[in-house]
Amino acid sequence: MAADTREEASPKRPEPENLNGNISARKDETYETFNKRLPNANVIPGGTTNTAGGRPKDVGLVEAAKTVHLEDFRNIHKIPCVRDSLLTGILSGFGLGGVRAVLGASLPKASNWAVGAFCISSFVMYEYCHYQRRTEKAGMKRAVEILDSKKVEREEKMQAAREARRKAKEEADKLVEEEERKKKLKGWKFW
């Protein structure tokens, strides 16, 4: 029977030392080991978390560039808040760069100011828009919760009113039956 090659090919992983926050001394220095990383609980005996048996691939710039597609740029306007933030950035960059150019700054310096204003204002507007969306979402969630609770309360009140009407009708029916029974007994004579 064949042995598992992963266990033989990779060296044993060293056991972590002193992971419970004890003070240890090394080279006449005393320090706490609170920030030491704990070993991964999902590591298999081969020393990797890849259950297929190999080592995970190293990701580089080329692999990252392969994940960017032209469709990402064609649909950028559909991402929430991007359109507003880019328009704000373009306007502020154009405005600040134009003002710097009119005030006598050199063209490269005015362009740098324009690009900086574009980047900063786009970022700030994007974050502000997301903040507004989060608060609106939280408000809507709260409103839905309130509406649901009111709906439950209204249904409970309606159920209680139905029960009260049903009981009142049953009592009225009982009274009518009782009166009819009494009339029958009055009208019947034993001879």
Biggest β-sheet: count, sense, barrel?
Answer: 2 strands, antiparallel
Classify the secondary structure makeup into a structural class: mainly alpha
The tally of strands reads 2
The termini sit apart by: 109 Å
Q: Order the strands across the largest sheet as they lie in space.
A: 1-2
Helix fraction bin: 55-70%
* Strand composition percent: under 5%
Q: Give helix and strand order, one letter per element, not per position.
A: HEEHHHH
Rg, alpha carbons = 39 Å
Summarize the structure in words.
With 191 residues, the protein is mainly α. It has helices at 5-9, 61-66, 70-74, 82-102, 107-187; strands at 23-26, 29-32. It has a two-stranded antiparallel sheet. Helix 4 (82-102) runs antiparallel to helix 5 (107-187). The longest helix has 81 residues, at 107-187. The model is unreliable at 18-25 (pLDDT under 50).
Task: Give the arrangement of secondary structure elements.
Layout: H1 5-9, E1 23-26, E2 29-32, H2 61-66, H3 70-74, H4 82-102, H5 107-187
Antiparallel strand pairs: 1-2
Helix pairs in contact: 4-5
Question: Briefly, what is this?
Answer:
The protein is mainly alpha-helical and 191 residues long. It has 5 helices and 2 strands.
Q: Key features?
A:
single chain, 5 helices, 2 strands, 4% strand
